[in-house]
Amino acid sequence: MVNYRYLGNSGLKVSEITFGNWVTHASQVAEEAAVQTVHAALDAGITTFDTADVYANTAAESVLGRALAGQRRAGLEIFTKVYFPTGPKGPNDTGLSRKHIRESIDASLTRLGTDYVDLYQAHRYDYETPLEETMQAFADVVRQGKALYIGVSEWTAEQLREGHAIARDLGVQLISNQPQYSMLHRVIEERVIPAADELGISQIVWSPMAQGVLSGKYLPGQPAPAGSRATDEKSGADFIESFLHDDILTAVQRLKPIASEAGLTMPQLAIAWVLQNPSVAAALVGASRPEQLAETVKASGITLDADTLSAIDEALGDTVNRDPEHTYSVSPKRRLV
């Protein structure tokens, strides 16, 4: 079963392996399979579920809501996000304005079939809306009982500090950041994590398997396997492209004996690695089939010894992206519509 961790400087516990439905629900898999994977997650002890209004242009939230229908609400932690364009994508159907946040939270709750979400997250930083307006709107959502806590995704260290200060003055808790983080992508380690640790903000990390590259199924000098994420535009093929270089794929192959020595599969090694970082509260995982989760959850509670961690670093060498400047280019400087 899955272990639990506190989320930020709060009393909320979340399953350290959290189910995310970014590229699966209403996109990659049929609804029946999506419901089966959610139920498999519940059976494995996963109680925390992460989605966003933009996933499949709102349809992923609806699928998750139907999949969780009938479950004891108090036994679940449901997260969603706001920022990216949704619906007809009009001029106010995007960003972190008061208008868009107010309308988006109500629509998300309807799709999810719940009166509140446990965590409402700013999916990116909005350079076109005053931060004070955004944080006041989030505070109103909390005071209205529509969200218990607030979080962000892919914010820089400076943005975290400023947002946290405003949230504190407004009397609400900013407790999480959701960045990309894996053995191959460590850009948050130098600046974001130290700032977040100081502020009591946890990391909920996405793509702990580097879009599936750390499974080892992508081989140097060979085409991507048929049906894999790299061959499916709906499954985030553009996100995986930066990892599909022979030097990276060769380095990943060097991880196989390390995983074997530790008694782990490659996916388990990748997920266990991010969970070794005490700043990480949860690793987001997806699944297109229920049996995938049976393997994934076994990474919970695993401790990798110092020799294993050193061997991983040596195997990957300079293929790892550690550039802290990368965090400044993730949020669009202008809204997308």
TrEMBL record:
Top-level division of the source organism's lineage: Bacteria
GO biological process assignments: methylglyoxal catabolic process
One Pfam family it belongs to: Aldo_ket_red
GO cellular component: cytosol
Residues of the NADP-dependent oxidoreductase domain: 16-315
Record GO terms (molecular function): oxidoreductase activity
Assigned keywords, A-Z: NADP, Oxidoreductase
InterPro entries: AKR, K_chnl_volt-dep_bsu_KCNAB-rel, NAD(P)_OxRdtase_dom_sf, NADP_OxRdtase_dom
Family affiliation: Belongs to the shaker potassium channel beta subunit family.
PANTHER family for this protein: HYPERKINETIC, ISOFORM M, L-GLYCERALDEHYDE 3-PHOSPHATE REDUCTASE
Name of this protein: Aryl-alcohol dehydrogenase-like predicted oxidoreductase
